[in-house]
């Protein structure tokens, strides 16, 4: 450690206090990404400010010393966005201690939460106040409000409530020069020049530090109905989605597709996972209906639509949840898909989107191309079919070395992406770019779009100190 490093660490310790700063082995969980793709991360320190003012002071000190900063929330990024590189030059700034719900208002239907509030806590606090914060994803027990906004996370309820961006009304942030911006407005309408709040959402910590957010709340559901269905094929999934949408679009809270490949990795690897159907099938969907109206007739709607689809041969079998515990058990099967794939060995993820109508074709074409590329590999697609967003993942062949398989990651992603491109899709639907996909930006977003992004970055963060090596090539 040189004299500059020692001096910045002294300054940061003065700002956050000795308990707010971590070094040595205490830093380990903050340096490795959730997928364990990069184990070479190093940092000068992990700094955990307790307030927006402390964070602002930390940023000013880092800017003055030319020290790069890596914002981190729950460190559940799927694209290694929240961990530092191997240089050891950066500090990780964690929002762990900025975890207060500042305000909740069930007339305005808004909640003001600090960046480090865990998503599940935000949901629970809203529910206790009689309202719903609808963002929901498998990592909700660790992911933070700052993280879900910085990645513009989607998740399971996007089909009804939109992405994280649509749930945000205003922000407070520390800008890259350390200035505090208070944009915590709780307004439904606010057209006052460039929407800075929307620029920071999805910026993955490259344009500043979100410290708090004003979020939208919704009425709590009074009736819910959930089913797990076995399907004939991918087209049947889409057809079933359409049947529900045509009958009552407002009732569909989630509509999730799971291929046999992916579901069976869960059943075979996750302790306690059991299929509530008579036998395994080639394709599954989870249908989740919810209404804030009492006696909305969701159970009847579910039964009627499934009966129609069974008559057409689209649905082969279905398990309808009879209790809250059964609803949770069905949802757990879906939520365990990332874990099931992790437990089954190495996998390469392609988080892609195409127009909803093209999903079945995209899944079939990608699966075929992947099997050809790596014989013996197992396509394990699943995801948010109602949004056209499929995790077109590939599990390693059982007899192939994991490292050799992962060395083909870029070929694998390119293979899927070429199919996706044919349908005008996106190579990153909800997880973002992080460190993994920066080299795809030129090809997919090059020209005016990337030039504008680079100009914005240069204007707001001229020294390039905010999350270097992420998002932009
Ligand atoms: P982190 O991982 O800590 O950070 C994510 C990015 O945001 C990084 O670039 C980081 O630098 C930046 N960042 C974090 N906090 C701030 C801040 N306060 N200000 C500025 N920048 C910040 N994503 C989906 O979209 N849909 C899903 O269904 C979904 N499911 C998941 C399931 C599992 C099991 C896992 C592990 C991840 C899943 N994810 C999903 C991915 C992930 O994007 C989300 O978990 C979440 O958005 C990340 O929140 P986090 O607090 O962990 O952020
Ligand atoms: C999900 O939908 C997440 O469960 C994770 O976005 C996707 O593991 C994945 O590829
Ligand atoms: Zn997802």
Automatic annotation (TrEMBL):
<dbReference type="InterPro" id="IPR016171">
    <property type="entry name" value="Vanillyl_alc_oxidase_C-sub2"/>
</dbReference>
<dbReference type="Pfam" id="PF01565">
    <property type="entry name" value="FAD_binding_4"/>
</dbReference>
<protein>
    <submittedName>
        <fullName>FAD-binding oxidoreductase</fullName>
    </submittedName>
</protein>
<dbReference type="GO" id="GO:0003824">
    <property type="term" value="F:catalytic activity"/>
</dbReference>
<dbReference type="Pfam" id="PF02913">
    <property type="entry name" value="FAD-oxidase_C"/>
</dbReference>
<keyword id="KW-0274">FAD</keyword>
<dbReference type="GO" id="GO:0022904">
    <property type="term" value="P:respiratory electron transport chain"/>
</dbReference>
<comment type="similarity">
    <text>Belongs to the FAD-binding oxidoreductase/transferase type 4 family.</text>
</comment>
<dbReference type="InterPro" id="IPR006094">
    <property type="entry name" value="Oxid_FAD_bind_N"/>
</dbReference>
<dbReference type="InterPro" id="IPR036318">
    <property type="entry name" value="FAD-bd_PCMH-like_sf"/>
</dbReference>
<dbReference type="InterPro" id="IPR016169">
    <property type="entry name" value="FAD-bd_PCMH_sub2"/>
</dbReference>
<feature type="domain" description="FAD-binding PCMH-type">
    <location>
        <begin position="39"/>
        <end position="220"/>
    </location>
</feature>
<dbReference type="InterPro" id="IPR016167">
    <property type="entry name" value="FAD-bd_PCMH_sub1"/>
</dbReference>
<dbReference type="InterPro" id="IPR016164">
    <property type="entry name" value="FAD-linked_Oxase-like_C"/>
</dbReference>
<dbReference type="InterPro" id="IPR004113">
    <property type="entry name" value="FAD-bd_oxidored_4_C"/>
</dbReference>
<dbReference type="GO" id="GO:0071949">
    <property type="term" value="F:FAD binding"/>
</dbReference>
<dbReference type="InterPro" id="IPR016166">
    <property type="entry name" value="FAD-bd_PCMH"/>
</dbReference>
<dbReference type="InterPro" id="IPR051264">
    <property type="entry name" value="FAD-oxidored/transferase_4"/>
</dbReference>
<keyword id="KW-0285">Flavoprotein</keyword>
């Amino acid at each position: 450690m040189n004299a500059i490093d020692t001096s910045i660490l002294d300054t940061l310790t003065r700002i956050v206090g000795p308990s707010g700063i971590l070094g040595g082995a205490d830093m380990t969980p903050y340096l490795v990404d959730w997928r364990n793709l990069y184990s070479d991360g190093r940092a000068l320190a992990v700094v955990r400010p307790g307030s927006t003012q402390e964070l602002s002071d930390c940023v000013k000190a880092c800017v003055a010393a030319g020290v790069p900063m890596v914002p981190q929330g729950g460190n559940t990024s799927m694209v290694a966005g929240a961990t530092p590189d191997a240089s050891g030059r950066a500090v990780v700034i964690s929002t762990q201690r900025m975890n207060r719900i500042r305000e909740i208002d069930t007339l305005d239907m808004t909640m003001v939460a600090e960046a480090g509030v865990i998503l599940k806590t935000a949901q629970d606090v809203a529910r206790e106040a009689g309202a719903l914060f609808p963002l929901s994803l498998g990592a909700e027990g660790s992911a933070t409000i700052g993280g879900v906004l910085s990645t513009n996370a989607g998740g399971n309820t996007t089909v009804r409530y939109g992405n994280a961006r649509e749930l945000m009304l205003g922000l407070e942030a520390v800008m890259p020069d350390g200035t505090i911006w208070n944009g915590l407005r709780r307004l439904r309408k606010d057209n006052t020049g460039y929407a800075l709040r929307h620029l920071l959402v999805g910026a993955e910590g490259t344009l500043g530090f979100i410290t708090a957010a004003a979020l939208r709340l919704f009425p709590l559901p009074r009736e819910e109905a959930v089913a797990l269905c076995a399907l004939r094929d991918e087209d049947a999934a889409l057809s079933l989605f359409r049947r529900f949408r045509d009958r009552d679009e407002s009732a569909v809270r989630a509509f999730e597709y799971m291929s046999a490949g992916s579901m069976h990795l869960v059943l075979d690897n996750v302790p306690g996972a059991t299929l509530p159907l008579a036998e395994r099938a080639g394709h599954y969907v989870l249908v989740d209906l919810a209404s804030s109206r009492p006696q909305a007739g969701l159970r009847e709607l579910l039964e009627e639509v499934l009966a129609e689809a069974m008559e057409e041969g689209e649905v082969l079998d279905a398990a309808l949840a009879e209790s809250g515990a059964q609803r949770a058990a069905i949802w757990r099967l879906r939520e365990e898909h990332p874990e099931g794939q992790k437990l089954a060995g190495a996998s390469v993820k392609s988080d892609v989107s195409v127009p909803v109508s093209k999903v079945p074709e995209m899944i079939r074409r990608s699966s075929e191309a992947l099997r050809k590329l790596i014989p013996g590999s197992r396509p394990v697609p699943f995801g948010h079919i109602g949004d056209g967003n499929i995790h077109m993942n590939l599990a390693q062949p059982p007899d192939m070395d994991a490292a050799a398989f992962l060395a083909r990651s870029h070929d694998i992603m390119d293979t899927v992406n070429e199919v996706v491109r044919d349908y005008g899709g996106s190579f990153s639907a909800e997880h973002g770019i992080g460190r993994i996909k920066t080299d795809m930006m030129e090809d997919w977003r090059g020209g005016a779009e990337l030039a504008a992004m680079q100009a914005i970055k240069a204007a707001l963060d001229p020294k390039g100190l905010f999350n270097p090596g992420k998002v932009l090539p």
